[in-house]
TrEMBL record:
It comes from Paracholeplasma manati. Residues 20-253 form the AB hydrolase-1 domain. The keyword Transmembrane helix does not apply. Keywords: Hydrolase. Coiled coil: none annotated. It holds the Pfam family Abhydrolase_1. This is Alpha/beta hydrolase. Belongs to the lipase/esterase LIP3/BchO family. InterPro entries: AB_hydrolase_1, AB_hydrolase_fold, AB_hydrolase_sf. Gene3D superfamilies: alpha/beta hydrolase. GO terms for molecular function: hydrolase activity.
Length: 273
C-alpha cells in the first residue's frame, strides 16, 4: 500500500508484481479493492498498478468541490511521474475508461496498449439522466433507495436473476455504504464530473492499439455508444460479449482477464498471413 501527494491531497495506489506494466482504472463506484478477484492473475506475469481517483477509496476527498474529469487525468499523469513510468498499458472500465481515453489523447507516448470496457465517448442524455436519478436518490440518504436506483441496471437481467445469493450479499454490503452521507456526496461529485464529458472531436487522435469491449446487455453505455468509439480510434479492435451487462468484469471474469492480458501481452500487433 502506497501513496503520493498532489497539492496536499493524498493519492492511494497499489503497485505489485513485475513485468510489462498494466494500470487498472476504476469505474465510478469502484476502488482499488474492487479488483481483488483479479489481482493474482494480473500480477502473475505483469506489473499491476491500481489507483483510487479523487473521491474514491483511500484517496482524499474533494469536499465541497466541483470538478471535471481533467482532475483525474492529471492525477493519472502524476502517478506515471511518481512511478517514473515511461509507458504502460491502461485498462479502464466505464468512468475509468473515460479517463483512460482522455489520458491517451493528452499523453500519447505514455500509452502502450489501451483496453476499454463499457466506455463511451461522451455522456449522452440517457446516461446524464440516469446519473441525475442517482444523485436524487443519494439526497434521500436512504441506502436501500440508492441501491435500488443504481445497482440493478448495472447487471444483465439474467445474471441478476440467476445469481440472487451473490446479489443479496452485495445488497448487505452496499446498503450501509450507500447510507453514508459522505460516500453519497462523493458519488454526487463524481457523477457531476461526468456531465461535461465529450471527446468526440479529439478521440480520433489516439495512437495506441486499442481493444474496445462491449457488453450486449449494457444499459448504461449501450453497444451503439461503443461502436462509435471503435470507429473513431484508428488502431482499434472491437469485441462484443453476449449475455453480459455493464459490470462485465464481474459477470464474465475469466473472459475479462483473458481479453485484457491476451491483448496487452501479445508480442506482435502486425502479422503477415
Amino acid at each position: 500500500m502506497s501513496h503520493f501527494w498532489i497539492n496536499e491531497k493524498k493519492v492511494f495506489y497499489e503497485d505489485e508484481g513485475s513485468g510489462k506494466p498494466i494500470v487498472l482504472l476504476n469505474g465510478i463506484m469502484m476502488s482499488t479493492r474492487s479488483w481483488a478477484p483479479f489481482v493474482d492473475t494480473f500480477k502473475a506475469n505483469n506489473r499491476l498498478i491500481r489507483v483510487d481517483f479523487f473521491d474514491q477509496g483511500q484517496t482524499d476527498k474533494l469536499l465541497g468541490a466541483t470538478y471535471t474529469h481533467q482532475i483525474q487525468v492529471d492525477l493519472l499523469k502524476s502517478l506515471f511521474d511518481h512511478l517514473k513510468l515511461e509507458q504502460a498499458s491502461i485498462v479502464g472500465i466505464s468512468y475509468g475508461g473515460e479517463i483512460a481515453i482522455q489520458f491517451a489523447i493528452q499523453h500519447k507516448s505514455k500509452v502502450d496498449r489501451l483496453v476499454l470496457f463499457n466506455t463511451a465517448a461522451y455522456t449522452n442524455p440517457w446516461l446524464k439522466d440516469i446519473g441525475r436519478a442517482w444523485m436524487a436518490a443519494g439526497k434521500t440518504r436512504d441506502g436501500e433507495a440508492y441501491y435500488n436506483t443504481a445497482i440493478p441496471v448495472i447487471y444483465s437481467p439474467l445474471f441478476y436473476e440467476t445469481n440472487q445469493d451473490w446479489m443479496q450479499n452485495r445488497r448487505k454490503v452496499l446498503v450501509p455504504v450507500f447510507s453514508n452521507a459522505l460516500f453519497l456526496d462523493q458519488m454526487e461529485r463524481l457523477t457531476q464530473s461526468s456531465e461535461s464529458y465529450d471527446v468526440r472531436n479529439t478521440i480520433s487522435t489516439i495512437e495506441a492499439e486499442t481493444l474496445i469491449v462491449s457488453a450486449e446487455e449494457d444499459y448504461l453505455t449501450p453497444v451503439d455508444n461503443q461502436s462509435y468509439v471503435a470507429k473513431a480510434i484508428k488502431n482499434s479492435h472491437w469485441v462484443k460479449i453476449p449475455g453480459a451487462g455493464h459490470a462485465s468484469m464481474y459477470e464474465k471474469p475469466l473472459l475479462f482477464s483473458t481479453l485484457c492480458l491476451g491483448f496487452i501481452n501479445a508480442k506482435d500487433t502486425k502479422y503477415t498471413i
